[in-house]
Design brief:
269 residues, alpha/beta, Rossmann fold, 6-stranded mixed β-sheet, 6 helices, 32% helix, disordered N terminus
Length: 269
């Protein structure tokens, strides 16, 4: 009995070891995922506080609730930040920032609307106080979604979509004023420049222009191939003929100069 139990225990250990080794092998063979740098997405809600917008606050609230209830069509993610500005004849960038938590959508929407409703509503709309600051934010953002609630009054200058926005204001301003509904302008920018715009009113869902695909990361410079080794020069064989071989022989000494002959008699012995 003890022998059978020992053999069974050894078999179980062997199976566990084989399974662990198989798991390690599979992990080592899994393809490495490419590392991509995260792109920061920012959201900015801008509310017009001209005197005529006071009558449009109920419709504005419904539109805001709809936008946040569906997380801006699923493009608001947990942890994203939402900043709030107001503008009339002057810009008030209080930077009320709400961190997005999908489960708290109703509370966040209520906090934003309470902040907007207590602003002072007076005079007329002036986009001149908004666009310079907005363009600076665009230039410093990777991805930015701007939602502007306004009454369609005033002239907007400073975006690539000025003409289309002014045309929509002229065509729909009387109807929106009668229905007490705001215009909702959505501007999107990527890597410091505008990339899309839509103009809606709260009769339906607000549409968001799609972001273009991000440019691929720059290619790393290819390393230069190694230089080939220098060619090997083979000297011809040295052939020696004779019985003695000497190299680097010194040059022969110069022969002594011959003395010129003279007529002197030879010396006496």
């Amino acid at each position: 009995m003890n022998t059978k139990a020992g053999q069974s225990k050894l078999l179980r250990c062997a199976r566990i070891t084989a399974a662990l080794l198989t798991g390690i092998f599979l992990i080592s063979k899994a393809p490495a995922q490419p590392a991509t740098a995260p792109v920061e997405s920012r959201f900015l809600l801008v509310f017009n506080t001209a005197s005529d917008m006071k009558k449009r606050l109920p419709a504005e609230r419904r539109a805001l609730n709809t936008l946040l209830a569906n997380s801006m069509r699923g493009e608001l993610h947990a942890g994203d930040s939402i900043a709030v500005w107001t503008f009339g004849r002057e810009l008030r960038a209080e930077h009320l920032v709400q961190t997005w938590v999908p489960e708290n959508a109703a509370t966040i929407s209520s906090n934003i609307f309470r902040f907007v409703a207590k602003q002072r509503y007076s005079k007329k709309t002036s986009f001149d106080v908004l666009l310079p600051s907005l363009n600076r934010v665009v230039q410093n953002s990777d991805r930015l979604t701007v939602v502007i609630f306004c009454d369609g009054d005033g002239e907007i200058v400073g975006t690539p979509y000025d003409f289309d926005i002014r045309q929509a204001f002229q065509q729909q301003q009387a109807d929106r004023k009668k229905a007490r509904q705001p215009f909702i302008i959505v501007l999107r920018s990527q890597l410091g420049r505008y990339v899309g715009c839509t103009i809606d009113w709260p009769a339906g869902l607000v549409s968001l222009p799609a972001f273009p695909p991000l440019p691929p990361p720059p290619n790393e410079p290819a390393s230069a191939p190694p230089s080939p080794p220098p060619p090997v020069v083979t000297a011809p064989p040295l052939i020696v003929i004779g019985t003695k071989a000497r190299t680097n022989l010194p040059p022969p000494a110069p022969a002594p100069l011959l003395q010129p002959a003279t007529n002197q008699p030879p010396p006496r012995p």
